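From the shared-data thread, chain only:
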Amino acid sequence: MKKQNYRPESISHVKLGIDVMSESAFRQIARHRVGLVANPASLNSILEHTADLLYANQDKNFKLVCLFGPQHGFWGQTQDNMIEWEGFRHPRYNIPVYSLYGKHRKPTPEMLKDIDILLFDVPDIGSRYYTFIWTMALCMQACSEIGLKFMVLDRPNPINGIQLEGPVLESSLSSFVGLYPIPVRHGMTIGEIALLFNREFGISTNLEVLRMEAWERKLWFDETGLPWVMPSPNMPTLDTAAVYPGMCLLEGTNISEGRGTTRPFEIFGAPFIKPEILVSELRRRELPGVLFRPLYFKPTFNKYQDQLCGGAQIHLLDRESFQPFMTSLNIIDTVVKLYPDQFQWRKPPYEYETKRLPFDILAGNSAIRVLIEEGSSTDKIVNIWQKGLNSFTRKRKNYLLY
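Structure, as tokens:
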């Protein structure tokens, strides 16, 4: 196969970690046997896949030996949530593709035995429940245990690197949607959060982060010039990513979070909800940066498949003032008050958790659900995590690269 030459005709002013590596002729991995963790969004600024770039440019200086894929698959082939997939042999490269969302969530020594360095190039969306950072953490642990180098090709936090929100995870609620105590919206790039994991939580692997160029903390993804590619099947737009740090909480309830529609997490509801009544109550709360529109929808899969649901769509008016976690608490609180006999907390299991309620696991806090049930104001609920969030904010400063 003819080698591809990196072509810098991108309209982007931000250079991703893979762009930087390509422009340097892959010198960072010279004389190494390489494994790569990637998914369909592991693309450079002109939509070339990192695996294709490595395969096409390998020579006596480095060799692509194996691939790994996170939740939803290396090719994004598993649409619905929490569907496992099995590894396979790549039909073109003729190398193994290992699943890290099946029998194993953490690479085994057998998977890693033929490589010298494990590259990680998977986009994050800046939210604790998004599992790709936890796949990264487990990969870092696996590399630490056998003395293997781990390198992150850094990518933007698409919802900016400034705003933080939500409770810091209680250690007793650790799961695959939150292994370590970080807040729901962490305001870090995937490389920065790798640095934090490595030192603060004792992974201590041989870690290198290949920094981006020209990225600034204030930037939202649509300000980078980079093309938006869905990082997972239910993350179609940047607006979806912006609401996700709150709206994913609905997975812990019997309210549909819009999976099975074309705007998951932006659309929500249930068969028992009257859209106009719901929206009237939500608008009365005057939540910042957002407007709700009543609608009906019929999910094609997941909760309430093929059932008519009443609900609403979130429309962002000002994403700088919008608070996704606080907004979603208000949505849940409103439904609880309007429909106390129909609303339910989702029962276990959730991500192999068979005892703890999914909402508590997602919130990462054992008090929030109880306070909602007691009818406490959302302002009071928000106040319970502020001290922990302030502490994390101070700790986070030690790992910021930009």
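Residues 79 and 233 are 6 Å apart (CA to CA).
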